[in-house]
Design a protein that fits this description.
Elements lengths: L2 E4 L2 E4 H27 L10 H15 L2 E7 L4 H12 L1 H10 E7 L7 H6 L10 E5 L5 E6 L4 E2 L2 E2 L1 H10 L12
Parallel strand pairs: 3-4
Antiparallel strand pairs: 1-2, 3-5, 5-6, 7-8
Helix pairs in contact: 3-4, 4-6
Amino acid sequence: MVIFQVSSGYYSLKSTFIIMRTLPFILLLLLAMNTYAQDQESIYNSNADAARDLSQAIQKAAEQNKHVLIQVGGNWCPWCHRLHHFFHDNTRIDSILKSDYVVLLINYSKENKNPEVLAELGYPQRFGFPVLVVLNEKGERLHTQDTGFLELVKGYDAEKVERFLLSWNRKAVNPETYR
C-alpha cells in the first residue's frame, strides 16, 4: 500500500481514491438540495384566513363578472409550485386567468389544513395536490379538477390547461351561448 504524508496526517492512496469517487455524488446531492430549497418559496400562506379570503374572492368575482379559480396545495408540494409557476410563466394561460378568473390559493399543510373551507368546497383534497376548484360568482362550486390529468412529463400540458380554463369560464357555462 502506498502511503503519503499531507500536512494534517497520513493518507493512503486507497483513501484518496474513495474520496475522489464519492466527491461527485456529494456535490450532486448538495446541488440538488440547493435547487430544491430554492424551489421552496412560499406561495401559500399557512396563516391566511381562508374563509375570509374565499369570501373576498367571490365578492371580487361578482363585481368583475368572473369565476373563482382556487388552487389548493401547500409549500411542501413540488407540483403545486410547478403549477403556480406554469400559470404565470405561460403568457397565454396567464392572460386567460386574468381575463376570466379571480385566482385564490388555499393552503393545505400540517400547520393549517383549512378543514372547514375544504369541506365547504366538497373535500377537493381527495384528488391529491394541487387540486383546482372552480366557483361561479355566487360561490357555487362548478367543478373540481384533479391536476394529474393536466400534466405532461414533469410539468403541465398547455393545451389541456387552456382547454380546462376555457371550458369553465363564465361564457362556457352560460346556456345562452349554447345556441
